[in-house]
Amino acid sequence: MKKALFALTAIIFISGCAAKVESTKTASGDSDLIKKYQKEGFISNNEYVTIIIKSDKDSSSMADIENQIKNRTLSSFQKYLSENGKQPDKNRRAKILNLINDFGTLKKLEDTQSKRFIYVLSIKKDNLKAFIGEF
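Given the sequence above, the corresponding structure tokens read:
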């Protein structure tokens, strides 16, 4: 019962905090933007990136995609903490969710040549890597 209540609370929290969404059209052959987001995870000490790629035929709503990418980011951060000797718990989970909602920006990149959408959740914060390490 407690787990179900906690999961429901987390879902409401994630869905209730809408990320800012930017949309950009680009061609895959010559885009610096696409190249920048080929790497997922910490791309610098100040930025963490999570990527989801969908075909143009995908019928997911923006809210569904936002929840998917936030959950993936949460899982990635929890894995990172676990690999660094810190077991995920409720407090760390809450801190990560707050970080995602407060500093995350969702970008939608439309690749006009291959008919796909690239969704990028970028979390930017000074000394982000050290900040996460202190959790």
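DSSP finds five helices and five strands in the chain. Try to locate this feature in the token string yourself.
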